[in-house]
Structures are given as structure tokens and as C-alpha cells.
Amino acid sequence: MLRLRAVCPFSWRAFQFRSCSCKPLITEMIKCTDEGQIFDLIQKSKAVLSEKQVECAFNILWQFQKQKTSFLKNVECVRDHPQFITLHNLATSQMEFMNDDTLVNVLYLTQQCATETHDLLVEALVTEAWRRLERFDINMLSKFSFCLANQHLYFSPLMGKIADIVHRKLETIEDLRSLSVLMVNISSLISQRFQDQLVNKTEHLFDTIDSSQVNVARRIVKFLRNIKYSYYPLLERCNTVFLSNMNHLDLDSISKILSLYHSLQFHSFEFIKMAKKRLTEMISLFNHPHSFVKLFVALGPMAGPEEKEQLKSTILLMSEELTSQQALAVMGAMEEMESRNSHLNKKIASILHKHLDNYKPIELLKITRALVFLHFQNKELFVKLRELLHSYLKISVIPSEISILVYALSILPSPYLDEVEISRIEAVLPQCDLTDLNSFATSVLRWIHYDRTYLDNTTGKQLKLLQKLDHYCLQRLQKCTNLNLLWEELKSLKGDWFAESLLEETVATLHRLMDEINYKNVAEIASFLSRTNYLSTLLLDRIASVVLQQTEKIHPFAILPIILPFSILNYDPPQSDEFFGICVQHLNSYLSVLDPLMLVFLGFSLATLEYFPEDLLQAIFNIKFLAKMDSQLELLCSSLSMRVQLRLMELNRAVCLECPEYQIPWFHDRFCQQQYNKDTGSVNGAQQQIYKMLAEVLGGVNYVKASVLTPYYHKIGERDKV
């Protein structure tokens, strides 16, 4: 070391001077109050600025930008400033001298200052970081992966290299904050086995984070969404974090969490209730479209009548300022809200019409579906929509995009396809999955129905296309060798064509892959049988067997979908008493946690199977539970709310008749009378004529009734509508 000092005295002094002089200049930077002062310092000191000072300058500029209201406008001003370009050039020249921490921080900060992704500095920093990748610690690796994600490099070889490093070092990682960032960013590249390892590691580390770590919890939920895995134990723990921090969650956080829950089909009544309250308090706080549109989309579908009117009237006042994407988001929320505000519907539709040329195919489908659902009438808008959809269809080569375009065309008034478009569909069929094939078939059937109804014509092309769809679907099912991959394609399939053409072959494929049913996918296969109403004793017996063997691995939230097909199809598997007994026992510790809606459907499903577990029924039929359920009903759409009330009434009736020893009172007289009055008030002319003829035959109206009721409102003499 002393010899090195003697050989290079000047270099050593320069290094010492640079190290010592670094702090005063950084102190001066920290004292700056605006960008101008920072740029003045850069201009004066550019000859001696070190890599640490460059990093500090970027950081302070970014802090200033975060405080601005007109963010993008200020970023552009900063980016175009001569001294920012000087700073940019200094970072490029000093890159090799930067330590790992400084290198990644400068990359992150230059991106935050809206530097273009193809910028030479960004490219150079990414290349240098790639060269050093193996020596990055977990924190630097997570920040670097975030920078790559900002450039949409999710599928790049570099992100693959990061995934490999995480896989190799997973056992030694103890920082869940950094790991959660990495999990989200590498989720598109990893195998199912690696996914499971990350889920297990997250569970192991979860208790190491503070209960206020909302961002970590949100990233975990986002990771589960990305890998399409509704893993209830982790979702519950993340939900607990969100609930405990609800008073500190802002609009953006609540919106993102609601969207993630919706994607994962995870229902938390407590979160919805608290989020609704929090969002309602924000209505008067926002007067700018960017924030208010987010509030409208998040709160609108679950708001009460008064709040909905307030939201609609405010968004109407802002409508002239809405961008194309904001108008699209509002229209989607209005569809969920079943908006009947014709003035608002017309206003938003006019904005969509103005920007129609700028929307992508998937966005055009959303617009078409919303307009049709809301019964919107505007010939000019529909003509323009049809023209755009046809023009996209003539040039598109992506199967999923073509299926979207064809589906959108099929739900427009007067649907049609020309021969060129039919040929385009036929060309991509070999590349389509079951979801796309089903979408094509649904569209073609709608087209055939229209031609028969209005044109009295069905072309051979349509029928030939249906035959080809049948062929490719059967071929795909027969080639399938993985149950989880099959389920990804099956879970959204529905409609007459699927039921008539594919159901038998689909069940045969499930029989072939039956040994792959396990605790992870058992609820999904059960839900398929419920949805299709298909009695497969082989699959139901396998489901019961998996539950008996792997009960402890199955989350109580999954018990309802597992029990449902046995209830709907009225089937008792072998060892039925043991099977249903284990399901009920597995639920007992969760009775106070499950949503009211889920408990009611559980109780009803078990009652149809003649199982009446006392603990479950006592949890349902008490004042506290019923009050909680009433508050949940306010958050549901009218049809689902009525269905829940009917199921509760039927369960109440069954318990009173079958288990009087439980001493549960009958309290649905008023509800049933209201339903009875609705039904008797809707007797049609044919029924009235029949009753009149019967009265004449039997000797008078005293001997005839439209329906006869038992004390518990069972109907005699016609099909039970209650």
C-alpha cells in the first residue's frame, strides 16, 4: 500500500481531495429549494462533480418533481434544461467509477425523470448493471428489476437471468420487501414449481414485516394475481394488513387492491365495507378528472343510491375535460352500475365517439359491450364502431385479437362478416386455445340466429365454420396432457355451443387427467361441475377422495365450491357421512371469519343434502350475523341480493321443519307474503282462463285457488317460485 502511494502520489491526493470535497457540495445541493439552484451548482462545479454528487443531483431533482402538481410538464422542462443534459453526460462518463449502489440508483432516478427508454445513458447503465449482476445484493437486484419492468422488459433474457439468481439464492433471502418486488417482476418467466417455492418463502417471511407494510402486502397480492393463484392463506394475511391500515390508504392504493381482489375472485366483506366508507369520505376532496375518475370507478359499483347520484352529477360536470382513457374507464364503471342516467350516458358516449380511432381492439370491445348493455341508441356511433372493427379484422394476425373483434361485431346491431373475414378466422383456428374457439363459436351462433330471424337465411359458410370449430376444439381436448393448463382454458367457457358440442368430450378429458386433481385445484374442478350441471360420479368421487386425504391443505374458503356440485346434483359419494362431516368440521374454526353471503350458501347447500350442522346454523341465525348480512346486502346488485334472501328464507324453513330442537324461529312470514303477492299479481291470461274453467267444473270460485300455501309458504298446485 505504501509502495502504491509512492508510485502514484498525485492519483492518491486526487482521490483524497475528491472524497473530502464530496460532502460540502452534497450539503449545498441538499440546501437547494428549486431546480434552478441545482442547475446553477451543476454549471459551476461540472468539472469536479463526482459520481456520488451526480447521484445526489438526480435524487434532489426527482424529489422536486414529486412535489409538483403538473408533473409531466415540469419533468419535460427539467429534461430539456442544458444543465440536465450536462448532468446526463457526466453520469455517462463516470459510470465505470460508480459503485453498484450508485449505478442502480442513477438508473432508477434517470427513469423517474422521464428519460426515454432508448436513451443512451439508460442503455449504458443497463448494460453495465448486467455485467455486474451476479454480485448485486438482494436490495440492488430488486431495484434493478424494477427499472427493467419500467422498460417493459418482463420477458427479456436479462430478467430471466435475475429470475435464475433469485432461484439459486432463495434459501438465503430474508428481506421480504425486496423479494416481493422481485416476485412481481419475474412472475411472467417462472415455472409452477418455482412459483410454489416463492409462495412458501413468502409465508415463512411474512411475520418478519411490520403490520404497516401495505406496499409489501399489495405486491404479494399482485404476484398471486400474475400467476393466477388465489392462495387464501396469504390473501387473508395481506387482507389483515390492509384492514389495519385502512385509515392511511389513499385512493390509488384502495383502487389497486379492489382491482387485484376482483381478478383473483377474492371476496372480503370487511374490506369492501371499510373501503366504501373511506372512499365515500373522499367524494368532496377531488375536483380534478384524473383523481375523480379513479374514485368513480372504485366507488361507483358499490355506492348507495345517494352516493351514486353525487358521483354521476360530478363526473357530468367534468366530462368535457375527460381524456379518451378516462372516458373509457367511466363507461366501464357505468356498465357495472347499470347506469340509467341517459344524459350522462350520451355525454360519455359522445367523448368515446370523438376518440374512437385511438382505441385498441380490446378497448373497442369494452365500449361495444357497455353501449349494448346500457341499451344506448346512436346509429352514427355504431356505424363508426363497425367500420373500425372490420378494418382491424382485415389486418389482424393475432388469434386472441381476431376473436375479440369478431365477438364485438357479433353483439352490434345487424352483425355480419364477409368472406375475406371468414377466411381470416379459418386461417388462425389451428393456433387458437379453447377460450378463443368458444368465443368464435358464440359469435357465429349469434350471427346465424340473426340471419334466420331477420333474413330467413343461413349460409353454408357459417355452418362449415362451426364444423371446423368443433374439429379444432375436440383436437385440442384430445391432445391435452396437463390438468392445470386445461383449466386455464376451461374456466371461462360457457354458452350453448360449449354445452352441446364440447361438454361430453371435456368431461372425458377430465376423466383422463383425474389423477392430477389435488388440494390446489379440487375446488376449481368442483366449480366446473356446478357451472355445467354435469353429473360425473367419477369426478365427484375423486373430489371427495382428495378432500378426505388432504383436508388440512384445503383452505376453509374452498369448502363451499367443493360442496356445491354435490348439492346441485343431489349426489352422495362413498363415505358421504365422513366426507361432509370433515367439510363441516374444517369450517368450524372459520365461522366468525367467513362472509355472511358464503355462510348462507354453505348452510343452504348442506341443508339440501340433509346435513344440518348446529354450530353453522347457530352462527347464521343470530341477531349479530343477520345485521352484518343486511349491511352486506346493500353492497350487492339487486339480483344477487334477492338470491341471498331467498336462500336464507329456504334455509330458515328447512331448519324449522327438520330440526325443531335447535329452537331457531321462523321469521320470514313478511318476506314470503311479499313474494307471494308479486307472484299472484303476475298470473297470465292463460292461467286465469284455466282457473275460470276449473271453477265452473268444480262448482264455484271457492273451490279453486291460484296457489295454496303451507304455514311455511311451500306452494301447492304450481311450481315453487320462491
UniProtKB/TrEMBL annotation:
Keywords: Kinase, Transferase. GO terms for molecular function: kinase activity; RNA binding. GO terms for cellular component: mitochondrial matrix; ribonucleoprotein granule. Residues 560-629 form the FAST kinase leucine-rich domain. Pfam families: FAST_1, FAST_2. The keyword Kinase applies. It comes from the Eukaryota. Residues 646-716 form the FAST kinase-like protein subdomain domain. GO terms for biological process: mitochondrial RNA processing; regulation of mitochondrial mRNA stability. This is FAST kinase domain-containing protein 1, mitochondrial isoform X2. It comes from Panthera pardus. The gene is FASTKD1.
